[in-house]
Structures are given as structure tokens and as C-alpha cells.
Amino acid sequence: MKDEVAATFGWFPPSPRVVIGHQWAAAVVREVGDAHALKVENDFPTPQIKPGQVIVKNQYAGINFIDTYHRKGLYPRDLPFVGGQEGGGIVAAVSDEAAAEGIKVGDPVAYSVFGTYAQYTAVPASKLLPVPEGVGLDVATSCVVQGLTAHYLTTSAHADLIKPGEWCLIHGVGGGTCQWAAQMAKLRGFKVIGTCSKGKADIAKTLGCDELIVLNEVEGASYEDYESVDIVARVMEVTEGKGCKAVIDGIGKSTVDISINSLAHRGIFVSFGNASGAVPAFPVLRLIGKSAYVTRPKLLDYTVDRAELVWRANEVFGWLKEGKLNVSVDRCFPLDEAAEGHLYLEAGKSKGKVLYQID
């Protein structure tokens, strides 16, 4: 490892320098568009290390729906940009400041910053999560966006409006973030109603939901047919007419009415994703019938400092080591199949985490 790092970055312990001009592979968006807007370039400049940073040699990069929103321009970013914001790998070089914090070349780490669809990423030391022994780098990489998102959704975003023993509705528990959220909600003591497609029911049945509503599939879509079952009626039947004190909804446009109508009095609609399209504007007066709440949170606002980030990560990693979380890594694509990774996710084929494996 040190010989490779020295050749690449001009590594000299403890304060390496990055040689300007070295080039490595990265999946880059130069114009927003469909999945093929994500193009692998083998001559992208190696990142330059700055004070307080490390360089991570990535082994995995997570593929998340938010990456597709960036690629399509739904969430604008300055062009061009390297895709991704979830990575895991081995520390390849450290700044003096990072070394003073005890970070060493060779440490296995996971992290979230922009630009992870690449062989190397510059990462602030404050963003690093040391990967504990017994947790694989693929699983650790999966934790950083999906795992931590599920954590804040089930611990914080509901503003304590749901208590142990009360009902929570979680859409799309068959794949991705909500596989995590269903399990974490149970760990918090909530009673969980999950929705999933028929094709993902085998996975969803392993998550411990108290009630599973299985829906027809929508061919080529990343979400289910939410009109194939009267979900609100079923929710009210299961909850004896009370409804759910929290609804966790990453689907968006197709489920907004279902989510609001499934709420209990003084329940909260937690809308965190747009798999079927963005939630359209609606009058706040819609909430008056149940004195309901609504929030549209994001991960950055629930990892505002190092202490909060580490607290969430330690709890997630602890559950993994104790066997309380079952994390499904569905498929790994090589980085040179960047577009195919996005197409797979957007077609609704995943039954768990989708990753790029990076040489």
C-alpha cells in the first residue's frame, strides 16, 4: 500500500503531498440528463489534499436515489461534477491535521461527501467514520447515507410525536433505505406497517413488520402500484381506526394522499424522497382534520456536527455487530458500468443496497 501511495501521491509520512497531474477514473456528469449523462472518464484529475483532509482510495461507492436527482438536475449542482456522496475504502494519504487526530494510512473508513464515484476522494477528517472490525466495507459504505438516513427518520425526524407501542407506516420496505427504517423502527419499539411490491415481498417479510401490505408492481419503475390496494382502509383496519402516528414516505408524488390520510390525530407525515416524482404543493389546511404535522427533512440537518454523526454511526454499527440489523447488499456494479447502476436502481430492481465496486 505504501509503495502505491508513494508513487501516486508522493507519500512521505506523516505529511504526504499529492502530485499534480496524476489522473484516475471517475464517473462524471458534464450535462444533466438520463443515466447515460453519467460518463466514466479515465483521465480525471486526482484530488488534491488540503489541510484537515485525507485521501481515501475507494473500494465501494453507494448508489442512492439522491444521486439520480443530482444527475437529472432536480437537485442542481455546479457542472461538471463527480457523482455520488457515499464511499468506503482505505486511507491513502493524511494531512498533518488528520494525522494529529490519530488517522493513519491504511485505516478502513466510510464517509459521505460529494464525489465518491471515483478511485480517490478527498475527505475532511471530520467526515470519516472508522469501520469497526467485523463490519465489511461494503456494508459500512451502505450505512453512510441509507443507514444514517433511516436512523434519523426513525429517531429524530418524527419529533417524538410517535411513542413506543404506537403505529408507524413505512412505504417501500422492500428495498433501500426503508429496509433499514423498518428494522430500526422496530428497535425503537414502534409497531410497523410496511408497503412493498410483490417482487420484493420475500425480502420485506424478513424485516419484522407487524403488518405488510403487498402491492402490484409498476413495470420499469422504482416504486409500486399504490392504487392496487386500498392502503388507507387497510391501515385503519389494522390500527382499529386510529391511524399511524408517523408515516415515513420516500415515494413522493404517488403516496402523498395515502400518507396524509393514514395519519392519526397529531401524527406526522415525514416526506424524505421522490421516487415517483416530487410531492406537489398542497394547502396546509389539509392538515386541519387531524391537527397533523408535516416535515421534509434531509440528512445534513441531522448530522450537523461530528458528535451527532458519530452518535448515529456508532448506534448503527453497534446494531450491525450485535446482529440486530440485516443489511442486504443487492448488487455491485464495476465503476465502468456507471450508467447501468443508475438504470438498475431507477427501474426498481434492487432488493437492497446497490454499490459500485472500484478497483
Polypeptide structure, described:
A hairpin with an 8-residue loop joins strand 1 (23-29) and strand 2. The protein is globular and about 60 Å long. Residues 1-21 have low confidence and may be disordered. Strands 3, 5, 6, 7, 8, 15 and 16 form a seven-stranded mixed β-sheet that branches. It has a six-stranded parallel β-sheet with strand order 11-10-9-12-13-14, with helices on both faces. A three-stranded antiparallel β-sheet has the order 2-1-4, with no helix packed on it. Helices cover 26% and strands 26% of the residues. With 359 residues, the protein is α/β, with parallel strands linked by helices. It folds into two domains: 2-146 and 301-357, Medium-chain alcohol dehydrogenases, catalytic domain (Quinone Oxidoreductase, Chain A, domain 1); 158-296, NAD(P)-binding Rossmann-like Domain (Rossmann fold). The protein has helices at 2-9, 65-72, 96-100, 137-155, 177-187, 201-204, 231-238, 256-261, 306-321, 338-346; strands at 23-29, 38-45, 53-63, 81-82, 87-94, 108-111, 120-124, 129-130, 167-170, 191-197, 211-215, 244-249, 263-271, 293-295, 329-334, 353-357. It is built from ten helices and 16 strands. The longest helix is centred in the middle third of the chain and has 19 residues, at 137-155.
